[in-house]
Design goal:
With 259 residues, the protein is of the alpha/beta class. The chain has 2 domains: 4-199, 2-enoyl-CoA Hydratase, Chain A, domain 1 (Alpha-Beta Complex), CATH 3.90.226; 203-250, Lyase 2-enoyl-coa Hydratase, Chain  A, domain 2 (Orthogonal Bundle). It is 51% helix and 15% strand. The protein has helices spanning 28-42, 65-72, 77-95, 112-118, 146-154, 156-165, 171-176, 187-199, 203-219, 221-236, 239-250, and strands at 4-9, 12-17, 49-53, 58-60, 101-105, 108-110, 122-125, 130-132, 168-170, 182-183. The strands form 2 sheets. The protein has a 6-stranded mixed sheet with strand order 1-2-3-5-7-10, with helices on both faces. Strand 2, helix 1 and strand 3 (49-53) form a beta-alpha-beta unit. It is globular.
Length: 259
Amino acid sequence: MQTLEYREEDTTAVVTLHRPDAMNAITEEMLGELRQLCSDLAGRADLRAVVIAGSDDIFCAGADLKDQAPRLADLAPSEMWVKLSETVETFNAIAALPHPTIAAISGFALGGGLELALSCDLRVASPSAKLGLPEAKVGMMPAAGGTQRLPRIVGASRAAELMFTGNIIDSECARSMGLVNVVDHDWLGAAMGLAERIARCSPVAIRLIKDAMWNGLEAGLEAGLRMEAVAVGLLFSTDDRREGLQAFLDKRAPQWQGS
């Protein structure tokens, strides 16, 4: 891969954005590599979490305008939508991963960079992190899920303020509004620690929780409660549920089978 680095630590996949000379800005090549990686990881039952990180100085500065502007300048609206849909498709693929996903943010996460982080389930940030959707300041708007995912995470009023003003906020402000889960000087270590704590739980239970939670938010409370009930029924028939109960009775750590 040319724009990403990949490694695995125990049961955690670590994806690092790697365009150090361009502030990890998003290109078509990066989008393609992310989509392929999501396709490869989706069936990996041995993995328990996926961490997406940048560097100490920057998570992602958004779209690479130097790369895209010449090609976008003369596009018709229908052609523009095709280009934007590639980014939306990529972030949807991240959101659809069955594993819990954690964005590990240090430095700037702006525009499409924040939208990438919003497609993850959880976000860990360094004290130096700066987050925002400043598109309105240059006559644009978030176009890769920001207008939809941000209000679902922080609420409509706070999301509106961030997008209407284009303000860039620090990590403590982001944590206070629920945009960031953890702020830590060792931001990557904190993300890996969070992944490790997730790995101690039943992978079957975690996947069903993730599916019921996000799909239920889209479907509404009544439909979401039905989804939850179906998921609980499925879970009761699994080896992991039986192992979890037996381990509790035996006062030992469970040995999850993932089935």
